[in-house]
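re: that chain from earlier
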Amino acid sequence: MPRDTYTTEIDTDGVRLHSGAGSGSVVGLLYSGDSVEVLTTSGSWARVYLTFESSGGLPAGSAGWVWDGYLACAPSTPTGGVCG
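^ sequence. v structure.
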């Protein structure tokens, strides 16, 4: 069973971080290799917290929503709190 909170990476360049699930303004962009903590999900959207400054300069601690298809580990696959 997947954990509610886990760490993974963004696997695509230029992923839009939104203020809301499926809608809302764009907070910034995330890039391949950016480390995020998945806090919760809503459908195919994941609320993430940026662990470190993004490759594009978005500060650590930024939070928002991304489509889970852009995560290296989708919410249905993590084990033990990390992508497995």
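The CA atoms of residues 1 and 26 lie 31 Å apart.
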